[in-house]
Each structure stands twice: as structure tokens, then as C-alpha cells.
Write a structure and sequence with these properties.
The protein is of the alpha+beta class and 420 residues long. It has two domains: 66 residues; 271 residues, LCP protein (Aminopeptidase). It contains eleven helices and 14 strands. It is extended, with a radius of gyration of 59 Å. It starts with a helix and ends with a helix.
């Protein structure tokens, strides 16, 4: 048994030895192959260095690529910047050109406006000088007759200019005849109005220093001065200036504005022709001069003598109707007066002013001339005193008169003229 055991041990050792030899032989072949590859292969490169080179190469490529991109970007930026700069320069130049044009336009407008203003100023100064001269000529043609008791009183009071218009039947300027018409002309700044207030001559009034009588008696007793004093005493009207108008002045005024258009009944036409007969005789004119067609009625154009005859009608209706006709004629004249002053000043001066008598000073007439503008923008009103419901008809000392409630009329006057 011991021998078998030794034999098996010897065999196992041989197998182990053979296995070791095969392993070593295999390993040697592997080593030889390794050596062969080492000897014949290029020198090995340091792996770290290789990685660095790869990294630098990639970075170089990227840098190169970046440089190309940057160059392209720079080219694009340069082109875009150039275009943008050119656009900016164009816009800047365009803006400068526009500003220059605007400056030139503004400069032209300023020069034109300056010249226009200069021309207007010259025209205004020339017109003012011409107007100043015209007013002086007009005033020189009038008859100045002062009233001592009111010389120191102002023309305007409490924003209102009151002027008493007195129409008389005198044929000579400055001569007192009968007061055929009495109208208060008021220019009120307070109410922005021009008011014509007819004063009925049959009002029974207290006449300072005289016995009570009709209003028109005050004029025949003491002229314009006593008449103004009587109005202030009974009606509370502060009036210190008057203009007396005779027949020739009234007719000349209507003719100077080119006549007036009024509505007449055929009955009024007949009376106009009747008064023209008297007027023609007094003025030495041929009979039938200026007669209206006997069958006429409606809207008719009246010249100076015809309008005067129309105002004097007293046998159709009452004195109320007569004063209404007077106001209608004056209203038509006032509306046409501004144009007539510019286009027919010579006829106005020759036909009207020599037949006017007044206590207005030349300075006051110049002041009044400026009120012509107000005639075009102020409202025109006409009324009468006494107002309705403030009087009654009566007979005193055998005279037909109007007994008047003066308190009511004073209240009305303050409201219409002074806006109270």
C-alpha cells in the first residue's frame, strides 16, 4: 500500500510540474510578444501630456473657431454699426434740416406778423388822426351854447351817459321854438344797451320856479337848462348834456345816412304829403316836391323831408303813437349811422351839424365818437315815459294832460338805465 501511495504521489507531482511548465511557457510567449511590440512600436507618449495636448488642441480649435466667429461678428458689427451710424447721421442731418426749415418758417412768420402788426398800427394811428380831425371839423360846424349851472357836472354818471335830444320847430339854429320832441338817449355800460326814452310832452309836472304845467312848457319857459332841471326834479334823471335839433338838422341827418325804410299805412301817407306841403312852403321848394304816391302803403323808403313829416303826424292815434314814430325813425338812423360816418362824412357835416346846438364840449364829443363801436354791439331799446299803468288822462286848467305816478316811472328808469 505504501508503494501505491508513493506511485500516486509521484504522478501527481509530474502533473503539477507539467502544468507549471505550460503556464510559464505561456507567460513567456506573452512576455515576448509584449517585448516585440515595445521594441517595434513608436515611443510611448506621456498620457498626461497627451491629454493636455488634446485639450489645448481642442481649445486652439475653439479659439480659432472663436476668432473666426469674432472676426465675422466684428465684420457684422462693423457693418451694422456703420449702417447705424449712417442712419443716425442721416436722421441728425434730416433733423437739422427740419429745424432749419422750422426756424426759417418761424422767422418768416415772425417777420410777416411783425410787418402786419406794423401796418395795422400805422393804419390805426392814421385812422385815429383822421378820426380826430373829422371830429374836430364836425364839432366846429355845430353851435356851442353852454349851460352854466351844469358846466362842472360830468357827462357820464354811474356808468351811464345821458343826453337829452330836443326837437323843436325852429327854422333857425339856436332859436327856441316849441319842443316838438323830447327823447333821452342813454348809453349804459351797466346794461350794455343804448336806450331811447321818449318823454311825452303832455305829462303834468312841477317846473322849478314856475307853476305846474305840461313838460314841454319848461322848454318854452327856460330852454334846455330848465327842461333838464325839470326832468331831474320829477323823474330823478341825471342829465346835464343836451343836443337841440331843428327841422333842417333832422331832415339832413336822414338824408346823410341814405334815408330809412319804414312801414306806413295809406292814412299816414296822406298825412305825410300834407306836412310836406307846409315844409315845401317854409323851405321855398316847389309844391309837390317829395310827395309819396297817394295810393302807397307798406314798407316805403323815406328821405329826409318825408321822414320829418312822418315824425310830425299828430292826428293819427295819440301822442303815444307820435313819439313811437319818432323813435322808429331815430332807431333806423342809429343803425345806419356808423357806416354813414365812414362813407358820407361830408354830407353829415354839411347837412346836419350846422343845425345842431349843444352844450357838449369838443373833448366830450371825441369821447362820444368812441361810443360808435357800442352802437354795433350794444342792444338797442326804445320805450317811453310814462309807462303803462302809471298815468291817467285828466283836464287841468282846461288843458288835456297826463297825471303821472312818478315813483313808478323812476323805478322803471333806474332798472332800464342802471340795471338796478
Amino acid at each position: 500500500m505504501d508503494n501505491d501511495r508513493d506511485r500516486h504521489s509521484s504522478q501527481e507531482m509530474d502533473q503539477i510540474q507539467q502544468g507549471v511548465e505550460r503556464f510559464l511557457a505561456k507567460e513567456m510567449r506573452g512576455y515576448e510578444d509584449f517585448q516585440q511590440s515595445v521594441y517595434h512600436a513608436p515611443l510611448p507618449v506621456d498620457p498626461v501630456k497627451n491629454i493636455e495636448d488634446d485639450i489645448f488642441e481642442e481649445m486652439g480649435n475653439e479659439i480659432h473657431k472663436g476668432s473666426d466667429n469674432e472676426a465675422e461678428d466684428r465684420i457684422e458689427d462693423t457693418t451694422e454699426n456703420k449702417i447705424e451710424r449712417e442712419n443716425q447721421a442721416f436722421q441728425k442731418n434730416s433733423s437739422k434740416q427740419k429745424k432749419r426749415k422750422k426756424r426759417k418758417k418761424k422767422s418768416f412768420l415772425r417777420r410777416t406778423l411783425g410787418r402786419l402788426v406794423a401796418v395795422v398800427l400805422v393804419l390805426c394811428i392814421a385812422a385815429g388822426i383822421l378820426w380826430y380831425g373829422m371830429v374836430g371839423k364836425f364839432y366846429g360846424a355845430m353851435n356851442y351854447m353852454p349851460v352854466d349851472s351844469v358846466t362842472m357836472e360830468t357827462m357820464k354818471g354811474n356808468g351811464v351817459i345821458n343826453i337829452l335830444l330836443i326837437g323843436n320847430d325852429s327854422r333857425d339854429a339856436g332859436k327856441d321854438g316849441r319842443s316838438d320832441a323830447m327823447i333821452l338817449l342813454s348809453i349804459s355800460e351797466k346794461t350794455q344797451s343804448v336806450v331811447m326814452l321818449s318823454l311825452l310832452r303832455d305829462m303834468y309836472v312841477e317846473i322849478p320856479g314856475y307853476k305846474d304845467n305840461r313838460l314841454n312848457a319848461a322848454y318854452s319857459m327856460g330852454g334846455a337848462e330848465l327842461l333838464m332841471e325839470t326832468l331831474e326834479h320829477n323823474l330823478g334823471i341825471e342829465v346835464h348834456r343836451y343836443v337841440q335839433v331843428n327841422f333842417q338838422a333832422f331832415a339832413g341827418l336822414v338824408d346823410a345816412v341814405g334815408g330809412v325804410d319804414l312801414e306806413l299805412s295809406n292814412e299816414e301817407v296822406q298825412h305825410v304829403n300834407g306836412y310836406l306841403t307846409e315844409y315845401n312852403t317854409l323851405e321855398g321848394r316847389l309844391e309837390g316836391t317829395d310827395y309819396l304816391d297817394s295810393g302807397a302803403y307798406g314798407i316805403l323808403h323815406l328821405n329826409g323831408p318825408q321822414a320829418l313829416a312822418y315824425c310830425r303826424i299828430r292826428y293819427i292815434g295819440s301822442d303815444f303813437a307820435r313819439t313811437q314814430r319818432q323813435r322808429d325813425v331815430l332807431m333806423a338812423v342809429i343803425k345806419k349811422a356808423p357806416k354813414a360816418l365812414l362813407t358820407n362824412a361830408t354830407e353829415l357835416m354839411n347837412g346836419l351839424f350846422p343845425n345842431l346846438t349843444t352844450n357838449l364840449t369838443e373833448a366830450e364829443c371825441r369821447q362820444l365818437s368812441l361810443q360808435v363801436i357800442n352802437l354795433t354791439r350794444y342792444k338797442l331799446e326804445q320805450t317811453r315815459i310814462p309807462i303803462d299803468g302809471s298815468y291817467q288822462n285828466a283836464k287841468i286848467d282846461g288843458k288835456s294832460v297826463l297825471q303821472v305816478n312818478f315813483a313808478k316811472n323812476q323805478e322803471f328808469i333806474r332798472r332800464v338805465l342802471y340795471g338796478e
